[in-house]
Amino acid sequence: MSRRYLDPKNDVAFKKLFSNKERLINLLNAILKLSDGNKIIDLDYIPQEQMPLFKSGKRSIFDLKVRDEAGRWYIIEMQRTMKIDFIDRVQFYGSYAYVTQIEEGIAHHNLLPIVVISIIGERMFPDELPYINYHQFRETSTNKQYLFSLMYVFVELAKFDATKIENDVDQWLHLLKCAHEESKPPESIDSSIILSAYDDLEQYNWSSEEHDAYVRSNLAMVKEAEELEDSYEKGEASGIEKGKVEGKVEGEAIGIEKTATNMLKEKLNVQLIASVTGLSKEEILKLQNKI
Length: 291
Known about the structure:
- There is one protein chain.
- The chain is α/β, with parallel strands linked by helices.
- The chain has 2 domains: about 10-205, no CATH class; about 245-290, no CATH class.
- The chain is about 45% helix and about 15% strand.
- The protein has helices spanning about 10-20, 20-30, 85-100, 170-180, 190-200, 210-240, 245-265, 270-275, 280-290; strands at about 40-45, 60-70, 75-80, 115-120, 130-135, 150-155.
- A 6-stranded mixed beta sheet has the order 1-2-3-4-6-5, sandwiched between helices.
- Helix 6 (about 210-240) crosses helix 7 (about 245-265) and helix 7 (about 245-265) runs antiparallel to helix 8 (about 270-275).
């Protein structure tokens, strides 16, 4: 039986839904649980070419500059995919978005805070963390926060109980997790803006070109998942042969080296790369010579 709604987690469908500013602002306010006086009221989409490419040739889904009711501006990065190196990758995105503001002529005291939001279908953290978890830097002895420049938010759809819909964020997460398996929205979803998202997901409202792009995106996701699984199995076998500890250390070193290489290709300065990766100036210059 043909399904009525397309999967909103598909890259093409996700972009179609949230290219609508009002809808995206509603989603962000719900996920970030912003109170009155601090809610997002405006946003601009940052051109994708301003963001870094990685080995897979992919960028984040959306890169946004947003303004809240108090007049504060900050930058939001929205990720959607799950990768073996996802935690390292998402931290790199956040760090990159923060430090490259300097290259745009912004003084240190005017740097905008960065919030990275990752919406993923899998479980990533232990069950002791809720389905939306927020990560910020805190001082370890007092557990007080003094550093506010970077924040990471992870939405783990696999943990979300889609049968319990109590507020706006539950309505959004239900749509993201379940819409493609439903014949109509649940009666407990009463938000007009979320119901409009259901309308946009109805496949009969899509053009043939949009359908083709959606199918290609699904095929790419399947291929990527297969490649990741194959890569993981090979890495696991190699790790058994070399020893778990040695394999882990080597893998971390390779990951850092790849990050530095990507930054060099973006023509970032050596001091900046050293601060992000922890590599010495000499190590970075060796990588530069290889490139």
